[in-house]
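User: I want to check something. If I give you two sequences, will you return the structure for each one separately, not as a complex?

Assistant: Yes, each is folded on its own. Here is the first sequence with its structure:
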Amino acid sequence: MIFISKFLPYGKQCIDQEDIDAVADVLSEDFITQGPKITEFEEEIAKYVGAKYGVAFNSGTSALHGAYFALGLDKGDEMITTPNTFVATANAGLYLGAKVNFCDVEKQTGNIDASKLEANENTKLITPVHYSGNPVNLKEIADIAEDNDARIIEDGAHALGAKYDGKKIGSLKYSEMAMFSFHPVKHITTGEGGIIVTNDEEYYERLQLFRSHGITKNNLVNPRDGDWYYEMQHLGFNYRITDIQCALGLSQLKKLDSFVENRRKIAEKYNGMFEDNPYFDVVKENPDGESAYHLYPILLKEKYANHKKEIFSKLRSEGLGVQVHYIPVYLQPYYQNLGFNKGLCPVDEEFYKKELSIPMYPTLTDEDLEFVQEKLYKVFSEY
């Protein structure tokens, strides 16, 4: 067994005593689920990004499922997304019977390439992903969506606190809804969790219905039997988040700006440290935006990309918890059984061949960054 004296993961949560106290406090209150902390959290997230409404869910995946439902995505509809994402972005469309199509990505960012986006009269939804926290070119995508009467839902799982065109992702200038994730490696955490923000009251109400079994006490179809009466009007799910989780989220939200600021400072230091190195390139920030740097991806030069499997394992053994983001979705066996084949998005396949995500989280120290550089260069120099 190899003993590793120091190990830096690619990402992790940042929990302090204030967060612990917030969770402990809610445990002594009347509601630990379906209570006021949920509404408070939803309102504060919406306020932070500049949206009118927020509906919190028990995961980013269920939040996307809810958003697609609220939009009315259904059998026979088509949607377009990027293959450079976690499978949930596409899966949520399949849950509703839609046909999922993939658009290739930009070579330098891994974001969906608007110049290759081909929508048509059957395209109901385009779901761009702000990969690594780096904003996509929303205006170009919005122009294509408008020309084809399609709608946009942003997958902002990586992008809470990021900005595009001077406004926060989630301000919805170009989209109907946006999703954020609160998984532990994201900018703030609720343990597991997600949220949809929107400015549309109808979407807001449909999101609430879908999250809670399709049940409501408002806008009833049948006469009310009494104050206890409720109706199931849609086939919804139990996708509810708890007050315990939202108490943690509210505490974390107070620190979000400092978390993002620290991530950006770390990225700036990485950029300087890695300038002109012979081993890899770094992902370019969108000049029209500000990345929230959920990830810090590096792209191995061809010589080293050919040895990525061995390099990955050696870096892990040296104490660097590198990860790969992502395997192109359509290369997953389930999608191949749907008829997708290798070669569909060649730029993304090349991106996957080259990409490694190195440690990026707000509490990394200068000493940690030097450790990262030392271990990277040590391993790469062996090839």
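And separately, the second sequence with its own structure:
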Amino acid sequence: MARRFATVDEAFDQVVDFLEHFDDLEDPRQHAKVLYPLDEVLLLCLLGVLASCESWVEISKYGEKKLAFLRRFRPFTQGTPSHDQLGDIFAVLDVEQFQHCFIAWTASLTGLGADVIAIDGKTLRRSYQKGGAKAPIHMLSAWSTRQNLVLGQAVVADKSNEIIAIPKLLDLLAIEGATVTIDAMGCQRKIAQKIIDKSADYILALKGNQGTLRDDVEVFFTEQAARNFAETTVSRHETVEKSHGRMETRSVTATDDIAWLKTRHGWPGLRSIVMVETVREIIGHPEARIERETRFYIASHRTANAQLQGQAVRSHWGIENGLHWVMDMVFRDDECRIRTANAPANFTTIKHIASNLLRRVPGNDSMRVKRRVAAWDEDFLQSVICN
């Protein structure tokens, strides 16, 4: 578990430091009519979510019951808002400003170094409004696979708009020296150029959305494999994993001998290509089933390295288990009924802050258990927010 702080004063100072990262978030309410300062509202909601609250009603009730605890950190002179007031406040907060503050706070936690940053989107299914007045929002997230932290997010109208949102999200992130991985939706020249301009590398999945690029890569690997790669220089790496009656063999082949491809397509920063072949087998079953899959990628790494590039490709899917699954199963994203205006996106940012804080708590307890303990133990909750 996280360490405990010796004094309330020390914890107070830590919370003040944390809240300062959100000073640039403008409060759109009329100043003369504000009963509940915005920093108190943000702190209430964050502590409530850490303590397993899932709605404005639960957070409001949490504030009523934990007012003495909340006053360890802020005055809360007027008490805490009702659930309707919380919803109204979060509905009008500027989404982009809140996300910028979140990104700045996350960047302060630790430097990136040679990280792999996975970018992927997720739809908040219950964020729609009935009658078609508002479609469900789509959140695009950047995920540090090394640190297991959400680095930033952006709201897009739907998945097709990820192409526009990805460069904007990249502009906000410090990615120098990192490798950015994106699925085929993000395999776009402008996105590749943006990553290169920010002194980072990319590995982009290939499908049929870039003319003949994927076909050319597939034909090259197929022809060279038929000759046992005797006519080109390649890097190769293979892993075998057995788990729960399944065996998965992953064979990665990479090459930077692609002058012909760069000439033909002129892709920004393109220096190597990667093929990942996966074979999945069910072990010990009378009707053994074998599944085969081959995927292709373009990369900007100057030198092909099948082991490192294969690890980057594999780690990209950590965003599914490390973030999307956690948001669904631990923070109940798909069951959340918050729908009004900016509230769904802003509440998701609160949950991302909570997720990052909980991940920094030492120990082997699951995220769900940590939230339960935070609900039971005020000292533990205090240590989480001050960690």
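Because they were folded independently, the notes below concern the second chain alone. Residues 106-322 form one domain. Confidence is low (pLDDT under 50) at residues 1-6.
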